[in-house]
Amino acid sequence: MFDFSTDYILEDHVVCLKPLKLAHVNDLLDIANEPNIWDYSFIKGNGLENLRSYIKSAIEARKDKNEYPFLVVDKRTNEVAGCTRFCKISLDLKNTRLGYTWYGKKFQGTGLNKHCKFLMFDFAFNTMEMYHIGLGAYEENLRSIAAMKSVGCTVEGRFRKALPSPNSNGRSDAILLSILRDEWLSSKREMLKGKLIN
């Protein structure tokens, strides 16, 4: 049974996800200051004060039983790679979302994200007993949408003009994707497992 107060560690031979702590601010600062990291985020974490506020907010959301944030570590190099989290968690409705995911440039395209998603999907469907996992992205964020499709997510719709546009000029649609428990168990778990780097 999932418990917000428990410090869960999700890991395999490539990646380790451990609960995000305020002490991780210095580990994440260089990545948070990389160009373009926050292009498709309406909550910014660049700069020391913004990043500290970002992490504090994530930790408070965990205390409020709404979110569960993780620090991502690449075990191949033992380097901090970024952050991700479960958000909009509803244990009653058995729904959650994955979001607030960002990785340093050197970790993008290395297979790390697929390992993270595999661990998080498995944890959400088994330990958290979820049925529906939702994901979303700005319609302009083609890289993120392609990455979500590649791990087995299905586009289920869009929120029209739901977000301020990345260039602060007008509004953007949000593309919604999801994966369901029965899809994961019947085929998509093995599909994604087959894409993982050994």
Provide a quick synopsis of the model.
It contains five helices and eight strands, in the order ββααβββαβαββα.
What are its keywords?
single chain; 198 residues; alpha+beta; Aminopeptidase; eight-stranded mixed sheet; 8 strands
Secondary structure elements and pairings:
Layout: E1 10-11, E2 15-19, H1 25-32, H2 48-63, E3 68-74, E4 79-90, E5 95-103, H3 112-126, E6 132-138, H4 142-150, E7 154-164, E8 171-180, H5 181-193
Parallel strand pairs: 5-6
Antiparallel strand pairs: 1-2, 2-3, 3-4, 4-5, 6-8, 7-8
Outline the structure in words.
An eight-stranded mixed beta sheet has the order 1-2-3-4-5-6-8-7, sandwiched between helices. The protein has a single domain (10-193), classed as 3-Layer(aba) Sandwich (Aminopeptidase), CATH 3.40.630. It is 31% helix and 32% strand. The protein has helices spanning 25-32, 48-63, 112-126, 142-150, 181-193; strands at 10-11, 15-19, 68-74, 79-90, 95-103, 132-138, 154-164, 171-180. The longest helix has 16 residues, at 48-63. The protein has five helices and eight strands. By secondary structure, the chain is of the alpha+beta class. β1 and β2 form a beta hairpin. It is globular, with a radius of gyration of 16 Å.
By CATH, the topology is Aminopeptidase
Order of helices and strands: EEHHEEEHEHEEH
CATH class, named Alpha Beta
Question: Averaging pLDDT over every residue, what do you get?
Answer: 96
What is the chains' assembly state? single chain
Helix content: 25-40%
Which structural category do the helix and sheet elements fall into?
Answer: alpha+beta
Annotated CATH homologous superfamily: Gcn5-related N-acetyltransferase (GNAT)
| Portion in strands | 25-35%
Strand count, sense and barrel status of the largest sheet are: 8 strands, mixed
Shape: globular
Total E-strand runs: 8
Rg from alpha-carbon coordinates: 16 Å
Q: Strands of the biggest beta sheet: in what spatial order?
A: 1-2-3-4-5-6-8-7
Please mark out the parts with pLDDT under 50 across 5 or more consecutive residues, or reply none.
none
